[in-house]
Amino acid sequence: MTATLSEGISDWPTAGFPGVRMNPDTLLPVIVNEDVMETALAASEDPADRIMALLLDGQPKEAAEVLAEARYKDPESFRLRIFEAEVHRATNRFDRAIQLFRQLLTEVQGTPREPIVHQYLGRAYFVGGNALAASESFAKALDLRVALAADAALIYSSAVALQRARNVLELAS
After folding, report:
1. Which terminus, N or C, of the chain has the lesser number of Cβ atoms within 10 Å?
2. Residue 104: CA count within 13 A, CB half-sphere
3. Cβ(37)–Cβ(19) under 8 Å?
4. Could you give the CA distance from residue 11 to residue 156 in angstroms, rounded to a whole number?
5. Are 54 and 62 in contact (CB under 8 A)?
6. Do residues 113 and 97 make contact, with C-beta atoms less than 8 angstroms apart?
7. Pairwise CA distance, residues 118 & 138, whole Å
8. Exposed/middle/buried for residue 1 (C-beta within 10 Å: 0-12, 13-18, 19+)
9. What percent of the chain has pLDDT over 90?
10. For residue range 99-138, what is the model confidence (pLDDT) as tens digits?
């Protein structure tokens, strides 16, 4: 796993799991405190947490194997469906990841889950090199999170991602 980072990450957005934060440059989750993450993993019974850890550790094949077994047991799990697309994103199959996120988006439109999917979709676009589509998804996630009075950490995460995508667009023009 990744070594513990401590310098210069205090303003990095949380990434939804203890010991993990979002790198504001790459917009990808990074392990910043391995001990904290391992402790949380040990206490978790959610297979999505193990899948996330495997992805963070650069083991997408192993993550896909855990995902397949978990999806067999719980095919409708929202988190597992998110991680199915994330496995594709992590293996540079951006078109498939985007397709899965867009499909999921149609299913959760108008629900509190919609901004979550927009955020993941934006990340897939961003990592895949489409900063314009990423900024649109991040803007939608941010707008929805504000409208839903989401946790401040989620709003901050969307704001940081949106600003990064806009910076990339500005540099490209």
Report:
1. C
2. 27
3. yes
4. 10
5. yes
6. no
7. 6
8. middle
9. 91
10. 999 999 999 999 999 999 999 999 999 999 999 999 999 9
Instruction: Please provide the DSSP assignment of the chain as one string.
Output: -PPP--TT-TTSPB-SSTTEEE-TTT--EEES-HHHHHHHHHH---HHHHHHHHHHTT-HHHHHHHHHHHHHH-TT-HHHHHHHHHHHHHTT-HHHHHHHHHHHHHHHTTSTTHHHHHHHHHHHHHHTT-HHHHHHHHHHHHHHHHHTT--HHHHHHHHHHHHHHHHHHHHH-
The whole-model pTM stands at: 0.92
Please report, for residues 7, 11, 110, 149, 150, the alpha-carbon distance to residue 86 in angstroms, rounded to integers and kept in the order given: 28, 24, 22, 26, 23
Give yes or no for residue 6 having a pLDDT over 90. Answer: no
What are 60-90's pLDDT values in tens digits?
999 999 999 999 999 999 999 999 999 999 9
- Residue 117 pLDDT: 98
Distance (Å, rounded) from C-alpha 11 to C-alpha 135?
A: 20
Looking at residue 85, its amino acid is A
- Altogether, the residues listed in the chain come to a count of 173
